[in-house]
Amino acid sequence: MLKSKFYRIFLASALTSIALLPVSSTVARSDANPRENQDSVLMNDVHFHLDNYIQEGIPIGEFLKLMGDKVGRVAIFGIPLQQKWDYFVDGDRSPDYYLLSDTELYYYSFVDAIVATEYLKLSPEQRKRFDPMITGFNPTDMYATDHIKRVLKIYPGVFSGIGEFTIHKEFVSPKVAGHTASLKNEALNRVFSLAGDIGLAVLIHCDIDTNRPAPGPRPAYLDDLKTLFRSHPKTTIIWAHTGLGRTISPRPEHLQYLAEILSDPAYNNVVFDISWDEVAKYVIKDPETTRAWANLLNKYPDRFLFGSDAVAPKTEAAYLKTYQDYAPLWKALDPKTSYQIRIGNYERIFDTARQKVRSWEQKQVSLDSRPALSALTLAETPSFRAAFGGSCSSPLIAGCFIETPR
Ligand SMILES: [Zn+2]
Hints:
With 406 residues, this protein is of the alpha/beta class. 42% of the residues lie in helices and 12% in strands. It contains 16 helices and eleven strands. It has helices at residues 2-19, 60-67, 87-90, 111-120, 124-127, 144-154, 186-198, 222-230, 254-262, 277-283, 287-299, 316-325, 327-332, 335-367, 371-380, 382-388; strands at 43-49, 71-77, 81-83, 105-107, 130-134, 161-166, 201-205, 237-239, 270-273, 304-305, 310-311. The strands form two sheets. A nine-stranded parallel β-sheet has the order 10-9-8-7-6-5-2-1-11, with helices on both faces. Strands 3-4 form a two-stranded antiparallel sheet. Helix 1 packs antiparallel against helix 14 (335-367) and helix 1 (2-19) packs across helix 15 (371-380). The longest helix has 33 residues, at 335-367. The chain starts with a helix and ends in an 18-residue tail after the last helix. The structure holds zinc ion. Zinc ion is lined by residues 164, 205, 240-241.
């Protein structure tokens, strides 16, 4: 019993310490000085898949080596959809990508445990370079919000956002088992509301249009997306790839569509990632196109982020490919804009998310109707020990020890 009390005191102390951590000085600074001269960091990466469509990937320690000193921080996640290996269809050809089989994809919630487990293998110092994201929920399920809360409670101190999750995506959406994801589904509204309440950054993949441009003057999903975005002004939303994809090429008006959002204060909560080499190919198609993109980015330097969209790369060259592909864009940008897109905007968004989510986690302990049991249970989980305790090496914790009193 004495031990139980000790755990409770420890937990309250630890979580209070986390909540009071100062937010990085980079938060909300849009005028941060470019520091590439003093710093080898080329970029932060808002879009990285640690695992592929069959939940196989790169150990996080190996990935750290690929990041080296060129990449500062990375938002990491798996892929929420598992490609089924159906022997009746594919025989011995085990498919590891959605385009390699006609069989279905299904939601694989264990992906979040895989990512958390990898993250918790790192030292506290190494963890500062990662922002894990929850992605293993079904966005058509009204219970999706329960999954997100459950993951935060089981793995406190780990996650800063949700995504990348997919609503409409070329070839993928029709393969997903069950009800087709939709921007009009109330389940998705609940997810966005919860993210706003907690402070989780949201990374959403939703194509702007259908595989072939939808008939009519507007892309198929743009206006429904805008309605969703507008309905959640408290939620920080990152629209992946600006809605483009392998076959979703930009209409001539694409930059005007983005400007509709950027110029309207009703969407101040929305930013865009320019991840994926399939997107870079549009941006760098020719000097005139690159100049048009650069003009928009220079006008709104705080609203775009670089991301690799790499999936478990095996080499540094493979990991940095998208960054290198964008070389003409980097040259065309103002230095300040370039810095913000590569580094500064990531820090602003994820420093804020980290602080808010840690604060929410702390409140859950105090709001629990059985605080003693909750605190004890939480403190005894292996993930909590790995995240917060066991030794006093963690910079997050004041008075941090569970079983090794000093
Ligand atoms: Zn995507």
